[in-house]
Hints:
The protein is flat. It has one helix spanning 23-31, and strands spanning 4-7, 10-11, 16-17, 20-21, 36-40, 48-53, 56-62, 68-78, 81-92, 99-107, 112-120, 123-131, 138-140. The model has no long low-confidence stretch (mean pLDDT 95). The chain contains one helix and 13 strands. Strands 1, 4, 5, 6, 7, 8, 9, 10, 11, 12 and 13 form an eleven-stranded antiparallel β-sheet that branches. A two-stranded antiparallel sheet has the order 2-3. It folds into two domains: 1-54, no CATH class; 62-136.
Amino acid sequence: MTNYFYCKSWFWAKKRPTEMWTEDQARKAHNDRKTYTVLVREVEHPYAVVEVANDFVAVTFLDDLLRQSMSYHFTEVEPGKIFLSMVTHREFDGDTDEVRIGHSYIFNQDGGLIIRKRTFSPNGLEEANSSTDVSRNYEKYPDFGDYEHLLKVER
């Protein structure tokens, strides 16, 4: 079973939680559709950070240096059903926090796909349009404490 820890939010620049919450505080936020954050496995060095905010869920996988290596953005498209609308993968410059290359995949429910490759040194942007089968992009809106189905790295 995966360990979950709850907090108000994750401070991305300082790589730490802003305010730890009890399970009851987080459950209330979940039930009220208010924003809260879930740290997966550990508090100080989480495997992933899950941000739940009303009709939006973001899952960010962290590398060993607590950098945002991959993130998934889900949007609620009907009650209880979320759709994976964007995936972002980042490559960093050595052990620094400087992003070298970022790839974004933006999905539409009709199968439309926009692929963006952004380089940061030198600055550049490439974009391509395509289509794909998005039937596997749908997930159940998470019940409180049940985030395992969102933590699949390979999608």
